[in-house]
Amino acid sequence: MEMRTVLKSDALTVSEHNHGAARVLLWSGVLAALVGLTWAAIAAGGNPDPLTAEGSTAVLDIGVLVFREGLECILVLAAITASRASSGQPYRRPIAAGAVLGFVATLITWRIAVGIVDALTENIPALHVQAATGLLAVIVLVIVMNWFFHKLYWTGWISLHTRKKRELLQSAADPAASRIGIILGLGFLGFTSFYREGFEVVLFLQNYRLELGGTPVLYGVLVGSAFSAVVAVLTFVANRRLPYRKMLVFTGVLLGVVLLVMVGEQAQEMQLAHWLPTTQLPSLAGIIPDWMGLWFAVFPTVETLAAQGIALLLVLGSYLFVRVRVSRASRPATQGSPA
Description:
Blueprint lengths: L1 H42 L10 H28 L10 H32 L2 H20 L1 H25 L7 H34 L1 H24 L6 H29 L9 H4 L4 H7 L5 H35 L3
Helix pairs in contact: 2-5, 2-6, 2-7, 2-8, 3-6, 4-6, 4-8, 5-6, 6-7, 8-11
């Protein structure tokens, strides 16, 4: 309910800044497209070939996920830093400091995860480690895309943070309250808001690092971070009310495409590691070109296509189930209300 109220409030105020925000997002998208095309042209000597575009696709996939996680982090931070009272303004600094510590902790977690994965590759065949990390990445992405998780996330995680912030600010009025304890509590809210998203990104990126190396991962993180930084500046510096709901839906659709690509790649890796059988579909082999496998991980095998179908059903099924439950829950109140 609290997150819904925040989004409704944003929807009411977005008309004041809609043109400016839309213009910024439009030009940001155009700039990103130009940078991507220029980079592809330079990397391919002016003649980009979709058959060698695996690294480019990974950069886009990683950028989408990092931007989505960054957007969710910004929404949580915006909820816990929102305060109309001037007395609440000084306490934004501990929250910001906590978010910075969350960023540092994410980098440390990345280093630890890289060390663990590299150590595993010394004793276990690299293909098996890659298949295992890919499976972990798919699980993380399925959870991120699951509507049950998001309903719990928005109603539980954000409300918990805003309630804790409210309690800390109320206790600040008590002369006996410890100022250091209040500052540490606010800093912890900022830390958890950032680190939760950063931890998910770290788990997600291990498979890409094993498969393609660190350079495409770095490019993808930079792309997603750049877009997240634009939204953060508009939210916290320019005090813009952006259409967060539309942005969540848009990035959700993009993540759905990323999920299907990752599931197809993971199923193929499990086939190469002999964790799954390989059942060719000769009737589709002549229809699905080779570049579809590199760009979208669509392969003419029963296992890869079935895995992608199951992933799609999980995401759409959870969405439809939540929609049905919400409509049924609201129906008695609607029917009982006076005409």
